[in-house]
Amino acid sequence: MDNKQNNIYPVGNKFRYKITLEYLGAGFCGWQRQAEALSLQQLIEEAIFKFSKESVLVTAAGRTDAGVNAYGQVASFDLTAFYEPRRVMHSINHFCRPHKVGVTDCRLVELDFNARFSAKQRYYVYKIINRPSINIINAGLQYWVKDPLDVELMREAASYLLGKHDFSSFRAAQCQSSSPVKTISNIEIIREGENIEIYVSAISFLHHMVRNIVGNLLQVGKGIWPPEKIKEILEQKDRSKGAPTAPAEGLYFLKVDY
């Protein structure tokens, strides 16, 4: 064992692994373990147990809701036995079959790393297909909106959400965060033909925050509300004043900065 990595291989043989996950959230109750349904956390923890025979707690950077997808979810866990990261990756992927869940990267990290609490920025993207005809090929992977959307109006509306605010109007009733105050660093809305992608980044998010933001922006895009309505809803700090929550199928956990 390389002595240069004593900070990664500490006395006591406790090894911390960082994995990057890609998954489709359909069929799962979300990331977090629940008694009544299969969660992504349960699937990953059981896959690790099957090859290591160790019961572990897997911590994720973002506890995605039921139906939410991921390109770059990050999670961390500890094992008392050493395994090459490539073997860990392939073993988890083997035991996650046939689910649409996979590890795309695995590496050893220092023990002070925590997938959730070490994160400095989280990124989401919400995917919309905007056309009058039905969505077939990408059904379940994009939110189909048949009414024409004005992206310029949506961009104007989104500008009111940038920076540090009380996001109570965009917070789910069951949100467990200690404070509704969050800081959005960027919102970018890109349209290519009938495809619209809404990128949102922040240090952390409230429960359903991105989907609630999208739901409100859609009201503006459809011409139902003027862009200034978003500022009004934000200042009211009341979820009941906002639009319905956009469905989970269009939301993807994109990546994390550490």
Beginning-to-end CA distance, first to last residue: 27 Å
Output the CATH class name of the largest domain. Answer: Alpha Beta
Biggest sheet features: 10 strands, mixed
Give the integer mean of the pLDDT values: 94
Unreliably modeled segments? 1-6
Number of helices in the DSSP assignment: 5
What would you note in describing this structure?
The chain is globular, with a radius of gyration of 20 Å. Residues 1-6 have low confidence and may be disordered. β2 and β3 form a beta hairpin. The relative contact order is 0.18. The chain is α+β, with helices and mostly antiparallel strands and 258 residues long. The protein has helices spanning 40-52, 85-96, 151-158, 209-221, 228-236, and strands at 15-23, 59-60, 69-79, 101-109, 121-130, 143-145, 163-166, 181-192, 195-202, 251-257. Strands 1, 2, 3, 4, 5, 6, 7, 8, 9 and 10 form a ten-stranded mixed beta sheet that branches. The chain folds into two domains: 11-109, Pseudouridine synthase I, catalytic domain, N-terminal subdomain (Alpha-Beta Plaits, 2-Layer Sandwich), CATH 3.30.70; 121-257, Alpha-Beta Plaits (2-Layer Sandwich), CATH 3.30.70. α3 (151-158) packs across α4.
